[in-house]
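Changelog-linked ticket: thiamine diphosphate example.
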Amino acid sequence: MIHSLGKKFACRITRLPFATSSRNRRLGGRVNHKSESRLEMSKKQTATKMMPGAEVILKVMEAEGVEVIFGYPGGAVLPIYDALFKNNSIRHILVRHEQAAVHAAEGYARSTGRVGVVLVTSGPGATNAVTGLTDALMDSVPIICLTGQVPSHLIGTDAFQEADTSGITRPCTKYNYLVKKSVQLQANIEEAFHVARSGRPGPVVLDLPKDIQLLDAPFIETNGKEKAEHRYQPITKPDPAAIKEVVKMMKQAKKPVIYGGGGLINSGPHASEALRKLVSKTGWPTTLTLMGLGAVDADDRHFLGMLGMHGTYQANLAMHNCDLMLNFGARFDDRVTGRLSDFAPFSKKVHADIDPSSINKVVNVDLGIIGDVGEILNSLLEEMDAQSFRRDEKAMSRWWEQIESWRARDCLAFEETGTIIKPQKSIQRLYEITKGTDIYVTTEVGQHQMWAAQYFGFHQPNRWMTSGGLGTMGYGLPAAVGVQIAHPEATVIDISGEASFLMNMQELSTISQYNLPLKIFILNNEWMGMVRQWQELNHGKRYSESYSASLPDFVKLAETFGMLGLRASSADELDNVIAEMLATDGPVIADIRVEKEENCFPMIPSGAAHHEMLLGPEDKASKAVSEEGKVLV
Ligand SMILES: Cc1ncc(C[n+]2csc(CCOP(=O)(O)OP(=O)(O)O)c2C)c(N)n1
Ligand SMILES: [Mg+2]
């Protein structure tokens, strides 16, 4: 059962603008009512302490297990900063831009499975956070963002540094609150954490007027026992009838494919574990989206590689030709499906997802299963035993034979000429040299991101942090800050492009301040390479404004921040630079001068289908981008 409010959340209300205009007021009223009555009840049972709102905020966060906040101060949050000054248990990491605070919190959240917390001031502090919040919404990352607000009596007067934060962030958060009464404060924060981390995770904003931070507010010691009475109860347990039905479909399959997405990572390590069991029990070919990498071991022979626009030949052709597709926690993103009318045209489709609004949103499926993808997988494994599932050995050997013939095309092979460093080679060597160590990788956005996804193998979940949905240049460096804060001993590498790096390079100062030993591995092609590639393929090689001019000397830049700067300009220097970078205790920027005009293949051109992919430059002429394709992003 899901009650009506739960349903609303489950539908990601932020995606229904017509339903959201009065959302806060309406739901805020209900929160007041509940929290006040809870307070009344609790007063009888528990000691209620009165303290300034700012202290209540930190107390509740402590109870929620928050250890780190990424933030940037300003007038409207000074009471919280003052409370932090006196607080010994929560660590504050001072970033250099509020966008970076959110990306850092995302890196922290995605590499730990915990909620990432952000603290920014009103007005420009909050508006600077908007890109990060949108990024977190698109990639379903649990974030709490505390924004300062002008005092209640000045709201609506165009006061200094006033912005309508709840209005601005309504479409880019899973939920948001403007806290209007001190008595609501604790319940609002507790509920915000619950909303951020439950169901399909996402960012939640708490807009906190300065008077609410200063005035005394009640705090009820919860000790983790007495939690807010949460109104949002997403479905986690799958419908047993649906599970029975999937197993029946599985028994019929001759050409099945398992297709997993970011939901597997969000669900927690148990989901990846269950997926691995399913893969070994069925022996079925498995592909993952950009967001799902690491859910199965890249070395597992059942893994076909990533699918989609820059996915492998074998993964995309298996999708195109399959007769049963089992989608676990992926959302049929357009980067994955290609032309929808020709997407896996011969298949029955099953879609398992925590978010009911995802089912039949983009692709109509034969069976939708709502629930936590880890629970769905475990129920499925049990039901397979109950129905004595046996894989169809004959059909499977035929199917694998066909898949292996596609795999034999070796679609990720690349040519090496002379002493130039091929970008693919630089990632391949980075992977090979670090293999066997527990490593966390973030990326920026562009060709280097796709090459990282193609050539770096992930063996565990939560090791790969990239901006998938929004495709945010400038994500990787601050995200790496968050990952390194969460895993101080681990090797953390931001695989970057020179243009993306410039988007949030102010975070070098943060890295330097906390002496974070992260490694920035820049594939420097002196181009916004992905833009250049599209201009080459779709716009008659008119390279309008895509050249990365006036780049800094990255080695000297590193030195000004007290870091080590390294450069590899020819293929014979590559391994030594990687080795020195990894052997260095502190932060390093490695400027890898790669082939400037290399294109990223394989590629499904926009508007094309999986079986129409380009395998290399020689494919271009015969498979030009269609007129409908040109309109797509
Ligand atoms: C904030 C933002 N602005 C613009 C874009 C569009 N865009 C996508 S890739 C790209 C070029 C990235 O260049 P670089 O970081 O050097 O990576 P490369 O493709 O060369 O590896 C641009 C401009 C984007 N994704 N994000
Ligand atoms: Mg570049």
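Closing comment: Example verified and attached. The first strand starts at residue 48 and ends at 52. Residues 1-36 have pLDDT under 50 and may be disordered.
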